[in-house]
TrEMBL record:
Pfam families: Aminotran_1_2 (PF00155). Its cofactor is pyridoxal 5'-phosphate. Residues 92-455 form the Aminotransferase class I/classII large domain. GO terms for biological process: systemic acquired resistance, salicylic acid mediated signaling pathway. It comes from Lithospermum erythrorhizon (Purple gromwell). HAMAP family: DapL_aminotrans_1 (MF_01642). One of its GO terms (molecular function) is transaminase activity. Belongs to the class-I pyridoxal-phosphate-dependent aminotransferase family. LL-diaminopimelate aminotransferase subfamily. Keywords: Aminotransferase, Pyridoxal phosphate, Transferase. This is Transaminase.
Amino acid sequence: MSVVQQSLSSFISSSNSTFLSQNKLKFRVQNVSVPGKISRVTKCVSAPSAEKTGHATKVLRNENLAKLQAGYLFPEIARRRNAHKLKYPDAEVISLGIGDTTEPIPDVITSAMAKRAEALSTLEGYSGYGAEQGEQKLRAAIANTYYAGLGIEESDIFVSDGAKSDISRLQVLFGSKVTMAVQDPSYPAYVDSSVIMGQTGQFQKDVEKYGKIEYMKCVPENDFFPDLSGVARTDIIFFCSPNNPTGSTASREQLTKLVQFAKKNGSIIVYDSAYAMYIADDSPLSIFEIPGAREVAIEVSSFSKYAGFTGVRLGWTVIPKELLFSDGFPVAKDFNRIVCTAFNGASNIAQAGGLACLSPEGLQAMQETVGFYKENTKIIVETFQSLGFKVYGGKNAPYVWVHFPGRSSWDVFAEILEKTHVVTTPGSGFGPAGEGFVRVSSFGHRSNVLEACRRFKELYK
Ligand SMILES: Cc1ncc(COP(=O)(O)O)c(C=O)c1O
């Protein structure tokens, strides 16, 4: 028995606590005693969720959180990947699942962050809290780089610690009484944050949908753009292009229809352009390229997938002054209030990195990073096409949407993992219309992508 086990054991025998009973200790020790794998095992073998502690507070659980189904999609995939690693400890698992970047951040960007970090150690270079909305220089650079000529000013830009955080902050802004629509399938944060805010009904297992959310079906049959004539009016419309997970991009004509639809219904579009730099054709890079969009749309975006900032954390949200609530109050003013209350501004080091991203050298370096992932995408697309699969996306996005007609996405996910040790993402995790598809991410080292494709070819030849 190890020293830790001995002391735990003696603690338990001297304790009346129901929490740490002998049995539970046995359960834990048994599950972590795989030789040489202790830290991994502790990470992935969680205590049973129904485990009772000795003391419960009198605080009611937020009933909206109880509505959520299982875990957030990506932690669930990580859980399955870890379980797979336990089952096959010697397997070389390749992850093309969660859309996390893998390539180093270009030097021109990290050196600017390093310089700013070092300056913080000097009297002249130190800075504490910054403006909640972001540094003026960065707001101006974002406006000039991505929105030049579109009527967006630096004061319309709110710098954030990433698009995901701002999606939730926007939900706080809207409150619990609004109704919302999403593309089906879509990035899970829109639906989950809506559930948490209390905008939805319960999850309906038969249709795999939450009550009170309008799911806008996006499938090959409608070119991944919803038939708006069949979409009910909602207050908020979440729309992502290039889309995660399908990789599809809305054309100018389609976005014009969306803006007109929002205007007619008095709705607000929350447009997620986190992958805009992956666009290779003439699809709009921003919703604000569409006439009239400034009166009906908010745009969230991010440096995550352009510069490898998934860990650094930096994004932005654009709320034009023209966007008003029904009583005429500017939406941006209320969002400013939310940001000042719930957020103290993005890290100053990250903002220095953001500014470097938008320098001529930084933009060039980001294009190269994006270009690298797009070459990966091409390899994945060609692999599945050569195997006879129908493949969507990929052209303007780092995601490939592979069709397995008539099969369950989770079954295909499990089959690929079991037989090739490659992690993908089951399409149904993004919404019921994702059933029958698997998303393959192109975020990976080239050698891993090539090896994964070799294994796919072996499995499906
Ligand atoms: C569509 C979409 N929006 C937002 C995000 C989150 O971006 P960030 O890292 O800036 O929070 C992601 C991340 O995968 C995404 O796919």
